[in-house]
Structures are given as C-alpha cells and as structure tokens.
C-alpha cells in the first residue's frame, strides 16, 4: 500500500513526512500513504508515546495544591472606660486558620470532582476588649475509595512553593532595609501612629527575635517531616461512624473529618501577650501565621471485580467486547500493545446464566479498525439514512437485557504483560496497581501459540514480581483462540488440538498450585472472536465474584465486631 511517488497530495492520499518513511523502513524524502496506513501509523505512534511514559499515566491521576487557612491577626488595643483614661492592653488574639482533611467516600467514583486547588478559611482577626478571632472552619476534601495520596517532595517540579519559599520569592532582589521593612509588615500590627516608635524599643526587638526563632524552628520541623515522613495514605476503606441515637437533644453527632493533610496557621497574639515589666503598654500585636502548603498527588486505583491478565495479542480486549456485547470501547487490533490503559466493562448476567454479549447470536467481535471501516461503508451506501434517532423512538423500554439481568460485575481489560515487565519492558507493569483491588484475576493465553504454558509461567512470575503473592488471586485460565486449532475438522488436527489443551490442563494442575488456598485454576478453551464457550467463563467469573464479595462482607462484619 505504501507507494513511493513524487506526486503531491491527491484526494484520499496524503503526504507524510520523512519520519513516517523511516518508520516504514523506506528511505525517501516524500512518501504518500493512504488513510489506512495513516490510522495504523497514528495508533503505533500513540503506543510508542505511552511506552515512553513509563506507565505513569495508567491511572486516574491528579495533582492538588492545598493551602490551609492563615491565622487571624492579633489586635493592639487598650481598654477604655469612664474615669479610666489609661486602661490595660485589651487586644484579642487571632483565630486559627482552617485545617484541611481528606476523607474517602464510596459515593464518588472518579477524581473529576476533586478541585485542583484547595484553600481553607482563614481565622478571624482579634478585636478590642479581649475578643479573640474565630477559628477557620475545616475544609474536607472528599475522594473516591481506592485513592492513594502522596505528598510530592520539594524538588519535584510540580510542587508549588511553600509559605516560606513564597515569601523568599517576593523579597528577591530587594535591599536589606526594604526586606526587613516588608518582613516586619507581614508579621506585626502596630497601634495607630506608633509603628516607628515601636521599632526603636528594645522590648519590640526582643519579641521580634523570639518570633523569628520560633518561625525558624517551625520551618525546620516542617521540612524534616516532609523529608522523613511525607504524607502517604492508601484510602481503601471507608470509615463508618457509629450513629449514636442516645445523644442528648441539641448535641451534635460526632463527625469524622478523615485524615489531616495541612494544619491551619496559628492566630497572631494580641498586645496583652507582650506585656512585661519593662513595657507596661505594648503598642503592637503579631499577625497570624500562614497555613501549611502541601502539594499532593492523588491516584485512583480502578475498582474492577475481575482483571484480565495476558500477553499482548492474547485476545483480552476481544474477550471484554464479547462479554459486554461490544459495548465496551476497547480497541482490538492484530499488533502488540493495542490496549494502553486498563479499561473496565460491565458484564450483565441473567438468572439462567445468559449474559448480554451472549444474546446477540452470530456476532463476531472483529478488529475495531475493520468494524469502523464497515460502518463507514454502510454510511456511504446510505443504509442509515432512514434509521430513527434515539429521540425519535416512541417506545422507550430501556435495554432489552434489563428484564433479564440479575447480577452484574465489572471486568478490567489490561495492557499486555510480557517477560521483564517488572524491569519496565513493554508497557511495564505499573498498571497492575489498578488490579490490586480486583476480587479475582484471570489469565488469558493464546492456545494457538507454540507454548501457552510458558506464557502462563511468565504471567504468574510477573504478577509475583509486582507484588509477592498477587498470583494467588488468579482463578482461571482462558485458553483463547481455540478456533484457530483443529483446521476444518480434520480428525488429526482436532486430536492435536485436544492434546495441546490436555497438556495445558496438566501444566496448570501440576505447576500452578497456589500455596495456602484450596482453589484450583479452571481451564476454559474459548474463541473470543466468535463468542464461543463464553457463557461458561461468565458463569465461573460470577461464582468467583459472589464468593469474594461474600468473604469481604464477612470480614468487614467481623472487623466491626472486634
Ligand atoms: N481467531 C481468533 N482471533 C482472535 C481471537 N481473539 C482475539 N483475536 C484476534 O487477536 C488479535 C489481538 O486481539 P486483542 O483483543 O487486541 O488482544 P489483546 O490481548 O487485547 O492485545 P493487547 O491489547 O495488545 O494486549 C486481534 O487481531 C483479534 O482479532 C479468537 O478467539 N480467535
Ligand atoms: Mg487489548
């Protein structure tokens, strides 16, 4: 299809730069390739790009900058009363800035509703007659269950500057005097017209030195914590609060805020705090501290009941499309690493074991590109010209499977796993993080391949490399592409195919024993492309999911009891 030519772009053909020619192994300065090659070329470029990401973009991911509330300012005031001209200092202290908490909730499923910047409420300023400012309300960030929260280190380019770095940046390039002036302005409140006189007094200088010392200590502690003990939270379980119905009337129910992420700044001190034997009428108060600033990386582990694990091209995406009647938009193509992200599909099962994908008889799950072309062809022929749109349908009964459905579970299609994935070969294996929460794993091997059992061993070892013991979650081996064996019913070839399957079963029985569990891996030959033998697979998956859900529920109950 690739043609070397000196002509310029013509109708369906388009010119491609030298890069694509290199990719195709042709040394020419101008090459013309048609639409099909172009699509193929773009897809492969996408795969290459993904591979270079080193598995970093597999998950729902978000960077959140969090800034706790600033403390309120202290107040410099004096008590005034009739016949009492020189009352004592009476400035109230500022309130604490609002803290920021993070809490997992089962009512969210994605990170889309989580804001990228979170600023908590500042504390109120202190006022005269000893009135302290009110504390800022806490801010709660709600994230879906399965979110992993990490604090980014300071040297990470995505980290926003913290409170001290921000101040340093704003003072850069100023001379010493102006710098000192600005720093004082940020830290002190003066009684009207006493700013200059205050700065001359020793008691103010002492208070200032003490404040800087305390600030230095706070910064040191904060940086030490950031280095040695950064925030890391794996928010897998929802905290269930006991609802105490015996509380006295008017008393608020205890409410969980979740995990503290950033503390609000302390409120500034009112002028009574600076009263000393030397200074009997302090005319200054301190301003509130800045709240903590933290940059967090949030990652969401996908929640799927069953995860498909297999080598590239084994047919995982075709299987998922077959289970869901082609509803799941996962790409299928005859080259390796077609799937770049884990994709979740919902499998709907009826009471009699039928499943949505199995109802459409004779449906062949073909390559997505071929299907797209067929669709376009139908469009061109005008086959859809008189088709009703969704809004024009008069009877809306929902999906025809709605009445039959009694059980549903989710299946995740993953990118291919290959030998050395743990060393970041292929697409690496970081996408397996999203499978940590799967209730069961299913191996998919190509039965038509030379040695499906070797594939199995590699898959199991890569799983265990990722997380020791992870292979214990595997429950089934799908021997896919069984339609490619057996020729056209030639008895010799059929016998050979049977023998190969027997060999695979024998390998699974003897070599794939999972220590510590009583499970045996089931081996099921299938043809995803021609939707054959899939009801058995769906039935078994349903059993695993029911069993695992039941076990999980029992565990939750026991943990709540003790
Ligand atoms: N004959 C036959 N071909 C199949 C079957 N299942 C999948 N294929 C073909 O195998 C190729 C790869 O299928 P995919 O579903 O993309 O494989 P995958 O495991 O998702 O591959 P990656 O996404 O690269 O990991 C495609 O050309 C499919 O049409 C099957 O049961 N029989
Ligand atoms: Mg795939």
From TrEMBL:
<dbReference type="GO" id="GO:0005739">
    <property type="term" value="C:mitochondrion"/>
</dbReference>
<keyword id="KW-0547">Nucleotide-binding</keyword>
<dbReference type="GO" id="GO:0005525">
    <property type="term" value="F:GTP binding"/>
</dbReference>
<protein>
    <submittedName>
        <fullName>GTPase</fullName>
    </submittedName>
</protein>
<dbReference type="InterPro" id="IPR006169">
    <property type="entry name" value="GTP1_OBG_dom"/>
</dbReference>
<dbReference type="InterPro" id="IPR036726">
    <property type="entry name" value="GTP1_OBG_dom_sf"/>
</dbReference>
<dbReference type="InterPro" id="IPR031167">
    <property type="entry name" value="G_OBG"/>
</dbReference>
<keyword id="KW-0342">GTP-binding</keyword>
<feature type="region of interest" description="Disordered">
    <location>
        <begin position="151"/>
        <end position="171"/>
    </location>
</feature>
<dbReference type="InterPro" id="IPR045086">
    <property type="entry name" value="OBG_GTPase"/>
</dbReference>
<feature type="compositionally biased region" description="Acidic residues">
    <location>
        <begin position="162"/>
        <end position="171"/>
    </location>
</feature>
<dbReference type="GO" id="GO:0003924">
    <property type="term" value="F:GTPase activity"/>
</dbReference>
<dbReference type="GO" id="GO:0042254">
    <property type="term" value="P:ribosome biogenesis"/>
</dbReference>
<dbReference type="InterPro" id="IPR027417">
    <property type="entry name" value="P-loop_NTPase"/>
</dbReference>
<feature type="domain" description="Obg">
    <location>
        <begin position="56"/>
        <end position="303"/>
    </location>
</feature>
<feature type="domain" description="OBG-type G">
    <location>
        <begin position="304"/>
        <end position="546"/>
    </location>
</feature>
<dbReference type="InterPro" id="IPR006073">
    <property type="entry name" value="GTP-bd"/>
</dbReference>
<feature type="compositionally biased region" description="Basic and acidic residues">
    <location>
        <begin position="151"/>
        <end position="161"/>
    </location>
</feature>
<dbReference type="Pfam" id="PF01018">
    <property type="entry name" value="GTP1_OBG"/>
</dbReference>
<dbReference type="Pfam" id="PF01926">
    <property type="entry name" value="MMR_HSR1"/>
</dbReference>
